């Protein structure tokens, strides 16, 4: 599975709110750094999705670029985060483990705006 394949699987699971799928795709030490700088653990992020504090309604890839174990994806993301719904132009820097198993390949995602 390529880094882009991993991202597509993660993106689709985010939109479906499928935390079981996300759990299987993300490394146990996975972190998500939000555009605010807040670093969220895998467990906390999945809990926030399960409780609907974070809902990803639609994520559309605009541009992707891969460099080794790092994938940069620019998206238009329609999401409700902690009660506020908006459409964000997010750039995600996604680090994967190219030597690891197909499952749990995504190590980290860092979000910023573009």
Write a concise synopsis of the structure shown.
By secondary structure, this protein is α+β, with helices and mostly antiparallel strands. The protein has 3 helices and 6 strands, in the order ααββαββββ. The longest helix is centred in the first third of the chain and has 14 residues.
Describe this structure as you would to a colleague.
By secondary structure, the chain is α+β, with helices and mostly antiparallel strands. It has a single domain, classed as Nuclear Transport Factor 2, Chain: A (Roll), CATH 3.10.450. Helix content is 26%, strand content 51%. It is built from three helices and six strands. It has a six-stranded mixed β-sheet. A hairpin with a 5-residue loop joins strand 1 (26-33) and strand 2 (39-41). Helix 1 packs antiparallel against helix 2. The protein is globular.
What does the secondary structure layout of this molecule look like, with pairings?
Layout: H1 3-16, H2 19-25, E1 26-33, E2 39-41, H3 42-50, E3 54-67, E4 70-81, E5 84-96, E6 106-113
Parallel strand pairs: 1-6
Antiparallel strand pairs: 1-2, 3-4, 4-5, 5-6
Helix pairs in contact: 1-2
């Amino acid at each position: 599975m390529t880094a882009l394949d991993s991202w597509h699987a993660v993106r689709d699971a985010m939109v479906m709110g499928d935390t079981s799928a996300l759990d299987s795709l993300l490394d146990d030490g996975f972190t998500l750094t939000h555009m605010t700088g807040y670093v969220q653990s895998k467990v906390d992020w999945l809990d926030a999705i399960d409780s609907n504090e974070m809902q990803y309604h639609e994520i559309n890839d605009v541009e992707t670029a891969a460099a080794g174990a790092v994938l940069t994806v620019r998206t238009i993301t329609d999401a409700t985060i902690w009660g506020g719904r908006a459409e964000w132009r997010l750039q995600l820097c996604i680090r994967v483990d190219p030597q690891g198993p197909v499952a749990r390949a995504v190590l980290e995602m860092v979000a910023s705006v573009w």
